[in-house]
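Can't paste images in this forum, so I'm doing it all in text. The chain is below; anyone willing to post the predicted structure tokens underneath?
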Amino acid sequence: MRTLLLGASAAIVFTMPSVSAETFLGIEGLTTQSNLSAQTRIYYWNQAGASDNGFQIVTPFTISTSISNELILLELDARAAYIIAQTSRPGADGGVLSPSDTVVSATATFSHPELPVFPFVTASLNLPTGKETLRGIEKNAVVDSDLVEQTRFGEGFNVNVGAGVTVPITKNITATLGGSYNLRGDYVPDGDRGEVFDPGEQFVLYSEVQYQDPGMLASLGFKFNYETESTLDDVPFFRPGDSFELYGQFGMSVTGEDIVNLSFSAARFTKNERFDPFTGTFRVEDERSAGDVYRVDASWRHRTSFGTVGVAGQYLRRERNDFDETSDLFLPARQRYLFGPTASVKVGDKTQLDFRAQYMRLVEDVFPVTGLQRTFNGFIVTGGLNIIL
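Text version of the structure:
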């Protein structure tokens, strides 16, 4: 699946043990910090000149803990949510209420006075607590990732492991090299057909250079993604092309009260391969159907006595039609615009409230087969709470 956005969530109650990290791990000199964050994100869209419309409400919940001393930094996260999705199309209404899959992850970064680098390892599990199998009108609630956050409401059991190293170059400049392997489990996405979908394994390599000082942050990175073939009922189905992505960000304090941030990404995909049942082999498509994807985000924030206020916007461009094997949808060539106000309010020293409201407009290119062009309007509203425990 070619998506630049990712989210997860579910309603989980955590009981924090009243025991120190030193006692629990048997290591002296550890410091700990835990954060709890909860959000509600509302997505609404409608097609101009038509009765097609829909909404999705996602309530992500995340708890994170960092444990560190002079030799190790251990970061632990658990993310889950609940999703309400509804679509309305002539003769094709649909809706789903479901928790999403739960993701638990850990990252360990190591340091030593005699080591000139900082190696790290990562591991995460996607636990299938969501609704991986849809039936009947539930399938009509699946909408592509440019309109809503969750294109599926659950998948299989996934295991992702990775490793890398961060190298200090100067006092302000670091370079990071890393890679990861994602083993994705099978599941039945369409309960009416009953076919077992086994998504391909994913391999990612990435590198990044970062500059940071008290008033500025800048980074530039490159990522390569390779994915093996997916199958339906053990029959080869689809193999997406490799992807190459260049990304970066820049942020700085313009004055003591104003902060600007800019980020971008540009992804290019090679030709897809589809299984030919007559020859029993994969056939590379004649023309590259997967279009390049460009994205730019920009924001401005002004510090106030109670927090911050500002505005944020985004531009997304897909150059050609693209097939999303996870949602089984074709994503036409299109442009998407987001823009709206943001605000954060501090409540004491350990609590912060966040708010964002953005108008969304998505304009598709003329579809070559039908000659039709579709335009969608909508909004995304987010409210969040972050607490330092």
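Confidence is low (pLDDT under 50) at residues 1-21. Residues 50 and 89 are 9 Å apart (CA to CA).
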